Every structure is written in structure tokens, then in C-alpha cells.
Amino acid sequence: MLDFHLLKALHTAAGPRTLDVRLTLAPGELLALSGPSGAGKTTLLRLLAGLDRPDGGFIQAAGQTWYQEKPRQWLPPQQRPLGFVFQDYALFPNMTVRENLAFAAAGQPQSARIIHDLLASLELTELADRRPAVLSGGQQQRVALARALARRPRLLLLDEPLAALDLPTRLRLQQVLAEVHRQFELTTILISHDPAEITRLAGRVLELELGQVRRLGPPAPAGTATPLLGRVVAVLPGGRLQVRLASGSTLVEVPAPPGRTYAPGDEIGLTLEVARTF
Amino acid sequence: MPPDYWQTLRLTLALAACTTALLLGLGLPLAYALAYGRSRFKPLAEAIVSLPLVLPPTVIGFYLLVAFSDSSALGRFLINKLGISLNFTFPGILLGSLVYSLPFMVQPLQAGFAQVPRSLREAAYTLGKSRLTTLWRVLLPTMRPALLNGLVLTFAHTLGEFGVVLMIGGSLPGRTRVASIAIYDEVQSLHYDQANAYALSLLGLAFVILVALYWFTKRDAARLS
């Protein structure tokens, strides 16, 4: 489905580096992209979507050349059949939910039916006539996903789609993503920092560091304990701690480990166990 | 009421309306290129656009007067080859107004384009939309306050124009004498009442236009958030 080798100069905190990723994705595969910030994850998605120009390499998608260094070939983003979900959702503020979808689906055969089905399957029917500004983060995220699907893409690119959401919303949307991925038979690339999310959703995970592939393989299986680092935010009554995970903004509540007392600001080591997959 | 009152007012409004309409068509592509372009010559283009802000209007008027007259190559070409004489005509003062009011249209539009988050444009592109469709359906509706600002400032600024119009157009009643020049003429002839009629009209018009601008802007902000 997707076969690419991409090279692009990166400006990282450690100085100039080169993003260099060679990968083949099978149809229907869901690949998670992880790694510290500045590793080149977003850049890789933007190169695939045609929003930035690579310095070298090639992109082949479903037998079509999207980019090639020599002889020079370049397909603009408008002509690449893919869906892109931006980190900030990028919903059009001047349009209602339905109009956002209609704008995306314009020109498709049976666009009215596509919009109707997407509104229903992402539970947006009741919000259809509202503008994005009055929606919650989770609702906006569902609209962004529905809009990306309205063009019936075969490739879906998601740039940290769930990072800004609270844990319950995130869990619910992970389920939505898994269903959408199955139902629309999409090839999906998802940027995520959350090991549990990756285990639940992804078939393979690509770990990037400073532009280079550090690891490519299956995600940790369910039941694996993942070590995590966090910082204590508050000491709660009943011997519990509120901890902010170092990998993002997620707050969790855990029983205080015995043997020492913790104060806000202390570092704490946790193990995270993925309980189940969808 | 001065004898030429309605004629002068009509001419003033016609000049402002024509200038605003033409500058909208001219300013949109220019502001788009300045906001999103990555050319090395962008600072040069920005300086040229902003020049009328800092130059005395008489300087612009003087050079246009010379350019349109038969003492310059351009003027000789216009007059002899095309038969177009621009000095002391309405098209002449219109051209002068376009130059003079250019930054009042381009700068708000450029700022408006720059304020739209980049991801909105890119989202439209990944949905298969051309630049023109994106401009029309996403950018312009999102930057409506900036659009309104550019239109209103250009219109109001052209209403109050004096130096450029006087240099190129002189003060021919019914042809090039706009309200601000009429005020000057009436004061020169010590007709303070008649000058007052024009001055009061311009004051009222400018005030109403600005109130309307701020009212619309406030309503629009409430609608989008």
C-alpha cells in the first residue's frame, strides 16, 4: 500500500540531523510512530501528506508515485488520497460540523450519504449544526476524524490525535479509532506517546530518535509492564498520590508506594500495565 | 447649503467607492503574496506598499502629475499613442487615490492572512481543495474582521484625501473637486458657512462608518467564538 524512503534535514536540540526513514506498510496496517519530541515524527507525516518537501527519496502509494527525487516527480497534497488529522484539529471555525464535513466530501458521489453515515457512526448527529468553537476537545477530535474520512481516503495520518484529551475521553476515542480503522479498511499512521494506546491500537511501532529509526517491530503485548517516570503533583488523603506522567500531560492517581514519603515535585517511578486490547 | 454641495458630495463618494472596490481586487492577491510568499524581495515589496504611509501626499501627487504629463515618456505615450489624458480628470485622481490608499487595504489584509492558523490552510489542501477554493471558503470567511477593516479604512481614508487629488486634479467643480478640497476653497473665499457644511458632512460620515465597523467587528467576534 505505502512504500517510502524519505530524507529531510532536521533542526533538533542536539544540532542539525537528517530524518532518514525507509518503510513499507501493508494495506490495512496500523503503524504507531513514537519517540521524543524533535525526533521527526510530525515532519515524517507532513512529508507523506505533501505539506513539506523532502530532500530526497521516494513515496509510492498503491502503485502511484507521489514523490521521486530523480527524475523529479511531485504530487501536491490536493492530489494525494489521504486523510490528515492535525494536532490542533484545524476545524474550519466559520462552518458548522455538518458544513465542515460537506466541504470535505464535496465532489464525491453520494456525498450526502457519506456525511450522514459519518455523523452517525462518530456520534455527531446531535452536534451537526454547531460550530467547532462550542465543542469540547473530544467532540472536536471526532469532527476532525470524520472530516478526514469524508474524502474516503485509503491512508489516514494522525498527528497525536488524542494527546490533549483527558484519560476517559482518550480511552473512548481509542475505541472509535480502532473501529474506524477496521470499518474503512484504512492504512493508518498514528503518532502517539502512550505505550498503552500503542499496544491497544497498533500492529507495529516505529520508534524514532533524532531522525533515525531506533526500533521497528510489534508493540509491547498486553500485560507487559512498561516502566514510566512521573512527578508527584499532589499528596491526596488516604495515602494516594496524584502524578503527572513525564511523557505528556496525563494525570494519574496511584496509591503511594510504601517505604518512603513523597512530596509534590518528587520524581516517582511507575509501572504501567496494559490491561486489555480492543 | 453651497451651490455645488450635492455634486461635490457625489463625486467624493464615487471616488471613495471606486478606490475601495478596485483596491480590494488589487490588494487581495498582493496581501496574499506578502503574507505567504517566501521571496527574497518581500521586504522590498513591503516597503513600496508602505511608502504612501510616510510620504507627504504632495510628493505622490507631484510625481504622478509629472508622470501623466507630456514632459515624461509615460505621459507622452498615454497622451499621444493612447489618447489618454489623466491630469485634471476623474480617472487621474482615481489612480492617485489607488496609490495613496494602497497600504490601508493591503496591511490589514496581510495581517488577516497571517493570523489564520497554518493548519487551516493545510487541512483544506489535504481535503483536495485548491488554493483559490481555500481562499474563498476558508481564509476570507475566517478573516472577515480584517477584510472589513481594510474596506472601511480605505473608504474613509479616501474620503479625507486632499494633497494627491489637489495636485493631480486641481479643483474643477463636478470633475475633480472633492469635499476636502471644497472646504479649502470655501475658506479661501471666506465662505465659512459653506465650508462648515462640507466639513460637518465629512465628520458625520467618518463617524458613522467607524461606529459601523466596530459594531460589525464586535458582532462577528461573538459569532465565531
TrEMBL record, chain A:
The organism's place on the tree of life at top rank: Bacteria
PANTHER family xrefs: SPERMIDINE/PUTRESCINE IMPORT ATP-BINDING PROTEIN POTA, SPERMIDINE_PUTRESCINE IMPORT ATP-BINDING PROTEIN POTA
KW Transport (keyword) present: yes
Record flagged with keyword Cell membrane: no
Sorted UniProt keywords: ATP-binding, Nucleotide-binding, Transport
Name of the protein: ABC transporter domain-containing protein
Sections of the chain in a coiled coil: none
Every ABC transporter domain range: 1-235
Organism the protein comes from: Hymenobacter ginsengisoli
Automatic annotation (TrEMBL), chain B:
Domain ABC transmembrane type-1: 9-215
Keywords: Cell membrane, Membrane, Molybdenum, Transmembrane, Transmembrane helix, Transport
Membrane-related topology note: Multi-pass membrane protein
One Pfam family it belongs to: BPD_transp_1
Subcellular localization, as worded in the UniProt entry: Cell membrane
Gene3D superfamilies cross-referenced by the UniProt entry: MetI-like
Stretches that traverse the bilayer: 12-35, 47-68, 88-106, 146-168, 197-216
SUPFAM superfamilies with a match to the protein in the record: MetI-like
Entries under InterPro entries matching the protein: MetI-like, MetI-like_sf, ModB_ABC
Superkingdom to which the source organism belongs: Bacteria
NCBIfam families: modB_ABC
Biological role: Part of the binding-protein-dependent transport system for molybdenum; probably responsible for the translocation of the substrate across the membrane.
UniProt family annotation: Belongs to the binding-protein-dependent transport system permease family. CysTW subfamily.
Protein name, entry field: Molybdenum transport system permease
